[in-house]
Amino acid sequence: MTVDVAIVGGGLAGITTATLLKAEGKSVAVIESNRVAEGVSGFTTAKITSQHSIIYDRLIHSFGEQKARAYGDANQAAIEQIASLANTFGIDCDFRRSDAFVFTEKEEEVDSFRTEADSARRLGLPAEFLESVPLPFPVKGAVRFSGQASFHPRKYLVALAQRLPGEGSFIFENTRVTGLHGGEPCTVETERGNVYAGHVVVASHFPFNEKLFYALRMYQHRSYVLGLRLNGELPNGMFISTEPTHSIRPHFDEEGGLLLVGGEGHRTGEGGDTVARYRRLEQWATDHFPVRTIEYRWSTQDNKTADGLPYIGRLMPTSEHVFVATGFGGWGMTNSTVSGMLLRDLILGRENPWADVYDPNRMGLEAVSGSAKHIGSVASHFVGDRHADGEIASLRPGEGMIVHSDEGKVAAYRAEDGSIHKLSPACPHMGCFVQWNSAEKSWDCPCHGSRFSIEGEVLEGPAISPLKEFGES
């Protein structure tokens, strides 16, 4: 099969890119290892905003005013692009305009918030410093961005995806990509055969095909979310705090609505007792809101780059036809949409004013410093985590651990019925030992964030092959 553009990944970045390219007359093939909108895009709190916590003053100092302005402009444009697509195609996705706030409860941070508001306004963003916000607890200061939005990402994505097949375009779900080769044409290898394309976009969350180039400049970060019913009205707006970070936003439904509260973030594989993280988040929520019931609990995973800005553009300096979109840092609704707009222009040979700030091949001082810290962390895990924590006999039902066994060190899980699942603890991506995640009942790699089920199946990349299985006992 041959198409103009093959897109690896059926999340918001991949589907938006495909939608915009098809509108330009290009044939596209979206290849998704699971189902569309059931990966990272399906677990977001779905804030559509250019307000990415306290960022713009830092961007001005680290990248210069021109690039800081380009980043803000791109994310503001993404809000309107989502609104336009929803309106054009008549998508009922609960799109709702709302103000976005970043707030602090610390007196010592107030001056930096005033500076952030001034810097954001200087860049043309709709920012304002406030001394209070519409929350049921006091804050010391806040920055408000007006005219932002939220939506239901799955409703939006599924509607866009349904419009893609036809006229030489395709969506292949439950199809894992196993290899990628640039060229003319490019070759995308899958479990079900090859797809040939003039261009390829890797929008698979963490790039699977360039182990070192991205693995040394990016790490994965998990956080936890609760869906709460409150006694009383939901707060009006979307909110995020400085460290320790907590995210707050209402989601309106037929029962009145839920309050989505997120927090307790950590590098993947370094969460310790992840069940305790849910408990701490529940405690924070009940301390700050009149919680009636906790209806939902889930977690999500985001990529963070060495310098804090996404990588959108050519995959490698020498890549003429292969592009990437990754590293959204928790702000994937707008940055995924920016990906579609920017990659469309790059593939069509158009100039785009955002290309430099998102260039995946940049390497400034902040990127070098961030990469050095990440490399140190990876090296520490690669060497320091290669020990066993106990014996198989010590495992309790529902517990996993790296243990000694007849096969050597294994990642062992004791099921509720007492049976033992034994896997190799070495992540097939680059060989780091996985760690047990008690809340999700998964094996998580602390080096690059791959996650595996108790049977060893890949839950999240960059790994594309499962953990080796030693059998059940």
UniProtKB/TrEMBL annotation:
Keywords: 2Fe-2S, Disulfide bond, Iron, Iron-sulfur, Metal-binding
GO molecular function: 2 iron, 2 sulfur cluster binding; metal ion binding; monooxygenase activity; oxidoreductase activity, acting on paired donors, with incorporation or reduction of molecular oxygen
Gene Ontology CC annotation, any one: cytoplasm
A Pfam family this chain is assigned to: DAO
Rieske domain boundaries: 387-473
Gene3D superfamilies (UniProt xref): D-Amino Acid Oxidase, subunit A, domain 2 (3.30.9.10), FAD/NAD(P)-binding domain (3.50.50.60), Rieske [2Fe-2S] iron-sulphur domain (2.102.10.10)
SUPFAM superfamilies named in the record: FAD/NAD(P)-binding domain, ISP domain
PROSITE patterns: RIESKE
Name of the molecule in the record: Oxidoreductase
Organism: Fimbriimonas ginsengisoli Gsoil 348
